[in-house]
Amino acid sequence: MQESVMKAWWDSSHMAGANAAYVEEQYEMYLDNPQSVSDSWRQVFETLPKVDGVELETNHTAIRNQFRQLAALGPTARMSSSAGKDGAAPSDDRQVKVLQLINAYRFRGHQNANLDPLGLWKQPKARDLDLSHHSLTESDMDAVFNVGSYAIGQDTMSLRDLFKSLNRTYCESVGAEYMHITDTEQKRWLQQRIESVEASPQISKEEKVSILKALTAADGMEKYLGAKFPGAKRFSLEGGDALIPMLKGLITEAGTVGTKEVVIGMAHRGRLNVLINVLGKNPSVLFDEFSGKHDNTLGSGDVKYHAGFSSDFATPGGNVHLALAFNPSHLEIVNPVVMGSVRARIDRRNDDFNKVLPITIHGDSAIAGQGVVQETFNMSQTRGFAVGGTVRIVINNQVGFTTSKTEDTRSTQYCTDIAKMVQAPIFHVNSDDPEAVMFVTKLALEYRNKFKKDVVIDLVCYRRHGHNESDEPNATQPLMYQKIKKHPVPRQLYADQLVAEGSLEQRDADRFIEEYRAALDHGACVVEEWRPMTEHSVDWSPFIGHDWDTPYDGAIAIDKLKQLAESVSSYPEEFKLHSRVNKVYQDRKAMAAGEKLLDWGMAENLAYASIVDSGSSIRMTGQDSGRGTFFHRHAVLHNQTDASTFMPLQNISKDQGEIEIFDSVLSEEAVMAFEYGFATAEPTTMTIWEAQFGDFANGAQVVFDQFLSSGEAKWGRLCGLTVLLPHGYEGQGPEHSSARLERFLQLCADHNWQVCVPSTPAQVFNMLRRQMVRPMRKPLIVMSPKSLLRHPLAVSSLEELSEGVFKNVIGEVDEIDPAGVKRVVMCSGKVYYDLLDQRRKNEQTDVAIIRLEQLYPFPQEEAAKIVAEYSHVKDWVWCQEEPQNQGAWYSSQHHFWQAIPDGAKLTYAGREASASPAVGYLSVHNQQQKALVEDALTIK
After folding, report:
1. Residue 58 CB contacts under 8 Å (≥ 6 apart), including other chains
2. Where are the domains of the chain?
3. Locate the Transketolase-like pyrimidine-binding domain: which residues (predicted)?
């Protein structure tokens, strides 16, 4: 008992192991000067136990130093003494101080690095990088010390040489942050690669010329556009020109080691430059876009700096397929979209992470300021969303729009500190040193491929113009822009360097400018590595040119359904289910045997079984997708004995398609964006995202608005993503009633997506099958149920499932003579069952009920056939649970008017308009529900 109490205290104490480094630092300060630590820490150290009256901190220091020395020294060094300048070994204390100095540079050298090309960014000086901090003086400079694990290739060095080497390695153009990584192997690996070349490897003349040509292209493109289209927005790369040789080098290196696809996500800054100088977009096409020329066969289109592009890029290892993702102005939202696209491509390549490389390019203010960045990092190592690491490049121009003061743009030392949450190494690099840029680029790729983790390159640069070219940046950043105005462009700096060192003649540097300008004038591709596309690995052609009325055969034989039903209700005998789950599966076995009608969960699982049985694949994610938030799906079973899992859907047939169901991280925006990216890259997989509650989709609204609803119109991107949004008024309050149906209906246009509200198990079965069987890929928005999952009337027979048709409109199901009908009520969703139940209780035969199961595209022809039976009826009602200003009433009323007979009137029955989706009290909810049902059924 005493041990458990002590353990609980220790785990919660500031003295716990997780704080060891901090405690040690405080103790070091206390030993140097007891007054340098707070009163509370001084009290802790002063009350340390004593043995025979001897204070242990004195003995502890010596012992600790000896152990530190032994731990830091290499095996060879431990066997030999370190000789001083006079041949005598230095004192243990000085040797330990030298090892502490090395460690200090590894931890904090980046703070003293020369990172800002403008020289304006002044970081607080790291005190422990000074020799004096470690009690080392000029008299020690020629003494020779053991350098331990410092990977310079020798065991001993004079302090003078060591100090110079440490500064060259950690305090010049590269500031490496990696000591926050807890994995020793990764830290040692990075140390060896950084320290062995002092962060500055030798590169060939050919590589230098290649870098200069890329910088010339970056600079030449911006100058050309600025002269040809003065004042036009282009969000230029000027100042961050090193991005072009960086990307080209990264792609070349990746292709050399076997990468076959690269997917890039970036916002505005530098996008046009990347399109022309990396992906090989034809400059003449870009110039036409600047001139306002437009292909009328396209959809609504988008501005040129949102456009995506695809091409192939030649490397020594073969062609690499490049894809620059389309994306809107919402900054960092493209990152999870890229990761989803990459995951789909990795799946096609048998989970070989190194075959597909994601590159995301960020702004410094955006990566620190946008919450989706944290969500995306958090997903990066999870089972359902891992992509083997992303190379993340920050174009750090040290200003966000007009905000440049660090205390206004973030609360962290660096804009990249968010990456430390996943222990990603971070390489800060001065963009005016392109050779240093290339060094960290290759290092980043090698790290990513080896450890399958994210890595960040902080490209510290500047922005030569305002946020766009019509802005006046001097108004808000006068000192910065006075400096920028006088600062030479990166191409000029590097050309001068190469000429000075004899690697290049000035006339050659000038010739590169002339040749690039001539190529732009000619209007042809300016990327030597560009190749016609042959590497893309998925064929979309079967899904192009189809519309809603494209015929398809969704019927399935009863015998096949029974076979599938047995499969989805089977699991190993030794598998012990929870008692409630066992009841669900016993019921499913009865349904498979024809002893019970099918409920929602069984029909849904049967739909998935039929899809994978046909050879297609399924991917489903959501916060409770395996079980289902409302305990209905149970597609993933959990053994109560050993917590192992089993998926009946993975055991349907020998040659079935794959199915993956992941309980996702607690995110809507990033997960939804990931699934959108996946669906745009993989048309043969049914991709499903399920919200825990429908209103949680609010957190992903930017994905619905900017991607899912308009991606085809803006960019021509087809997407078959299915979105399940639990929706229904059961008295659960304002936050868990509405999936905000009205928002999705408001976005409906151009037949951009389907909005469905299925009301029976047969309907959900055939709706899901239709989404895959029909040769068309459009998003499907489903208002999925909650209480209907177990409603006694919401059941279906196997025969109804086998018909293979989703009924967009369902007419009257009771035996009511149309001739005697005086009022027709139209509705969608759960309210139908409330209306049906009350009408039966009232024994009414003069009111008919029609269900609209698909609200968009509105099924005008199908509705007309059913409405024709009631052409004599003048009293028509739209009934909904949602408040009048929400739901379908306002957004779809024009469709309802078109559907009813000429001369008929249409009225509304439902809750009054409300700022809130629902009331918070169950009693008030019940009163409102009763009133709206009575209002709908009462003929006035």
Report:
1. none
2. 75-177, 205-530, 558-802, 809-937
3. 598-791
At residue 226, the pLDDT reads 86
Q: Which two three-digit tokens encode residue 120?
A: 């304006």
Average pLDDT for the chain = 89
With CA atoms as reference, report the closest residue to 271 among 243, 230, 250. 243
Q: Kindly state the DSSP code that residue 467 receives in the 8-state scheme.
A: S
Q: Is 757 helix (H, G, I), strand (E, B) or coil?
A: coil
Spatial distance between the Cα atoms of 651 and 654, rounded to a whole number of angstroms: 8
Structure tokens at 37: 């630590």
For residue 206, the model assigns a pLDDT of: 95
* Burial (CB count <10 Å: 0-12, 13-18, 19+), residue 186: middle
Task: Tell whether the model's pLDDT for residue 361 goes beyond 90.
Answer: yes
Kindly report, residue by residue over 630-651, the tens digit of the pLDDT.
999 999 999 999 999 999 999 9
DSSP strands (E only) in 464-575: 530-531
Task: State the CB neighbour count (10 A cutoff) for residue 542.
Answer: 12
Positive or negative, the CA dihedral 542, 548, 553, 556 is positive
pLDDT band at 471 (very low <50, low <70, confident <90, very high): confident
Same fold: 75-177 with 558-802: no
Single out the residue of 217, 222, 252 nearest to residue 237, CA to CA.
Answer: 222
- Angle at which helix 243-256 crosses helix 205-228, to 10 degrees, equals 130
Write out the H or E segment, with its range, that includes residue 394: strand 391-396
User: What six digits make up the tokens of 396?
Assistant: 């750090």
DSSP for 318-350 reads --EEEEEPP--S-GGGHHHHHHHHHHHHHHHTT
List Cα–Cα distances, 299 to 690, 714, 733, 750, in angstroms.
Answer: 29, 6, 41, 9
Q: What is the pLDDT of residue 8?
A: 47
Cα–Cα nearest to 315, from 240, 261, 277, 354: 261
Parallel/antiparallel/unpaired status of strands 144-146 and 156-158:
antiparallel
Over residues 912-928, mean pLDDT: 94
Q: Is 590 exposed, middle or buried (0-12, 13-18, 19+ CB in 10 A)?
A: middle
State both tokens at 235: 């969000």
Question: For residue 434, is the peptide bond before it cis, meaning its omega torsion is within 30 degrees of 0?
Answer: no
Give the number of other CB atoms < 10 A from CB of residue 719: 21
Q: What is the mean pLDDT of residues 582-606?
A: 96
Q: CATH: 3.40.50.11610, 3.50.50.60, 2.40.128.50, 1.10.1610.10. Which one for 809-937?
A: 3.40.50.11610
β-pairing, 659-663 vs 617-622, is parallel
CATH number of the domain at 75-177, please?
1.10.287.1150
Q: How many residues in total does the chain contain?
A: 940
> Above 60 in pLDDT, residue 76?
no
| Joined tokens for residue 781 | 């928005």
Residue 327 is predicted with a pLDDT of 84
Please check the confidence at residue 61 and state whether its pLDDT lies above 70. no
Alpha carbon distance 768, 782 (integer Å):
10
Q: Which CATH homologous superfamily contains domain 205-530?
A: Thiamin diphosphate (ThDP)-binding fold, Pyr/PP domains (3.40.50.970)
Instruction: Give CA–CA dist 230/234, Å, rounded.
Output: 10
Cβ atoms 913, 887 nearer than 8 A: no
Q: Provide the b/e sequence for 384-409 (b: ≥16 CB within 10 Å).
A: bbbbbbbbbbbbbbbbbeeebebeeb
**pLDDT higher than threshold 50 for residue 59:** no
DSSP state for residue 585 in the 8-state scheme: H
Closest by Cα among 92, 30, 24 to 55: 30
Helices (H), 171-330: 184-195, 205-228, 243-256, 271-277, 283-290
CATH topology of domain 558-802: Rossmann fold (3.40.50)
Whether residue 426 contacts residue 501, with contact meaning beta carbons closer than 8 Å, is answered with no
